[in-house]
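Help needed: design a sequence for this.
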């Protein structure tokens, strides 16, 4: 640090030490509160709190925080109120005396930021920097820092050193400013509530609008605002979305439901039309009538209403409000019922085929399959791996056999296998419920029927092998589908059926060959006759 800088800082500290402890506390608290929310001063405020023995007490929780950052991260960022408190007022001057000059520079920087803030607020030049700032700071502090730095009255006449410094001005703190602002907002909200509508004047901010809207929602009333126009006219806007907010608050609207719209009945439309016609300033003027509750159009508006007729018009609309609310409630119940019914349908559609089959067969009463055969059909060797533990448990429960969810899958398989050996109907039900899971893929079908791939594809195209569905696999970067077939039908086929299909195909091939031969002979004869005619000519 340069000697001149150190000398000027010592001079500023000496000037501050002429203040009493109470005056120092008033000045420091005022400066600290002016810097609340200024991110560039966060670290400096923390250091000064620790050096001078200040903390921040929360008015909400009464917790005393040691530093500014600790308070801001917990409560300050949530717009909670806090108060800077000197932990030991009697030792404040001692802290200032024993503070190293390099640390006292933080106080000079704090004072500079306060003066810059004052200058920017009133569109005045910012204070100087460097040594010139420190000289000016010492002079400004010597007269008590009574007024903003930029006014510079301290330059014209400085008091003699023997005179005690004057008491710093009682400037409103940020806490006091916020309290005053809240009182103004509360007064505007009360006025709007007494009138029945909010008059949009220049001093009405978004906070006032939000408070009025919240109060309307709690009281199940529409939010109505009035905007004065040129001359003696005004525009009345009624926010019909208040209806939606009311039902949202009451839990009658739920996530995923369609956006509710208010559609007036013919009778209500006529009453609204008559109401609007009554308050037109001139017969040529019309009103906007967007009777929907969507983000783009949810305002009922009356344009060019005489200002003297505004209170009467608001009362006229409020007379219609109970009927509007009742009608919307009926429409909402109908939409909710339709939505819930559709959700049940979608939930039913999303159920797997095997679960739908169990539900259907359970509703039919006695569990008898339409596909029971005299001889039991052989299950595939890997059938336990084709069915999940959930499916096995559900099927055993369907058969009214004991099945615990705590049982391991191997025990469920063993239990079902034992039962299938003695109950042909249970086996038929197994094939019916899990037709897709036990379906035959193409490669197994060719083994069971002892046919070629060409024959399988031909019989599939001829609908001799009905397809249950399709599976897919990925190869060479693309998806390929394959059909799978009902195992019950495949196992019911005999060698005679296969031989009959083959004979039919051979007969069809022979018939096609005979037809081709006849067509070739006819073409050859026609060509010969044509040549003979040409030769005769």
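Sure. Designed sequence:
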């Amino acid at each position: 640090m340069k000697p001149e800088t150190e000398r000027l800082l010592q001079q500023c500290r000496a000037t501050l030490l002429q203040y009493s402890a109470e005056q120092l506390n008033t000045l420091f608290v005022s400066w600290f509160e002016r810097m609340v929310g200024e991110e560039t001063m966060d670290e400096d405020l923390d250091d000064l709190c620790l050096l001078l023995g200040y903390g921040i007490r929360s008015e909400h929780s009464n917790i005393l925080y040691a530093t500014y950052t600790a308070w801001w991260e917990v409560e300050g960022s949530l717009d909670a109120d806090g108060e800077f408190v000197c932990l030991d007022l009697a030792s404040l001057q001692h802290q200032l005396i024993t503070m190293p000059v390099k640390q006292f520079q933080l106080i000079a920087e704090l004072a500079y930021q306060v003066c810059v803030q004052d200058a920017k607020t009133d569109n005045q030049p910012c204070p100087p920097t460097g040594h010139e700032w420190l000289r000016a700071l010492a002079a400004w502090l010597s007269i008590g820092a009574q007024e903003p730095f930029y006014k510079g009255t301290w330059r014209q006449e400085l008091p003699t050193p023997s005179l005690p410094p004057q008491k710093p001005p009682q400037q409103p703190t940020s806490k006091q400013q916020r309290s005053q602002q809240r009182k103004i907002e509360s007064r505007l909200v009360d006025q709007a509530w007494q009138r029945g509508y909010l008059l949009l004047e220049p001093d009405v901010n978004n906070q006032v609008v939000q408070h009025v809207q919240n109060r309307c929602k709690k009281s199940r009333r529409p939010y109505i605002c009035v905007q004065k126009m040129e001359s003696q006219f005004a525009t009345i806007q009624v926010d019909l979305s208040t209806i939606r907010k009311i039902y949202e608050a009451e839990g009658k609207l739920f996530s995923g439901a369609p956006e509710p719209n208010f559609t007036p009945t013919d009778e209500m439309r006529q009453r609204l039309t008559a109401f609007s016609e009554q308050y037109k300033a001139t017969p040529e003027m019309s009103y906007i009538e967007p009777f929907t509750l969507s983000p783009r159009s949810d305002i009922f508006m009356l344009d060019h209403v005489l200002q003297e007729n505004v209170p009467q018009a608001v009362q006229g609309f409020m007379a219609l409000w109970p009927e509007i609310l009742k009608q919307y409630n009926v429409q909402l119940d109908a939409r909710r019922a339709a939505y819930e019914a559709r959700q049940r349908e979608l939930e039913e559609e999303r159920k797997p085929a095997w679960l739908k089959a169990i539900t259907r067969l359970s509703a039919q009463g006695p569990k008898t399959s339409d596909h029971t055969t005299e001889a039991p059909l052989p299950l595939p060797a890997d059938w336990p791996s084709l069915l999940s533990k959930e499916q096995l448990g559900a099927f055993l429960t369907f058969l009214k056999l004991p099945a615990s969810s705590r049982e391991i899958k191997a025990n469920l398989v063993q239990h079902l296998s034992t039962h299938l050996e003695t109950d042909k109907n249970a086996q038929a039900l197994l094939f019916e419920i899990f037709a897709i899971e036990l379906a035959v893929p193409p490669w197994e079908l060719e083994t069971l029927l002892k046919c070629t791939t060409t024959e399988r594809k031909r019989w599939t195209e001829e609908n001799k092998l009905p397809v249950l569905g399709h599976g897919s696999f990925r190869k060479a970067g693309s998806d390929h589908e394959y059909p799978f077939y009902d195992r019950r039908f495949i196992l019911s086929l005999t060698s005679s059926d296969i031989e009959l299909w083959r004979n039919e195909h051979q007969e069809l091939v022979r018939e096609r060959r005979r037809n081709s031969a006849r067509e070739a002979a006819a073409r050859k004869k026609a060509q010969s006759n044509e040549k003979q005619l040409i030769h005769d000519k």
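Residues 494-537 form one domain.
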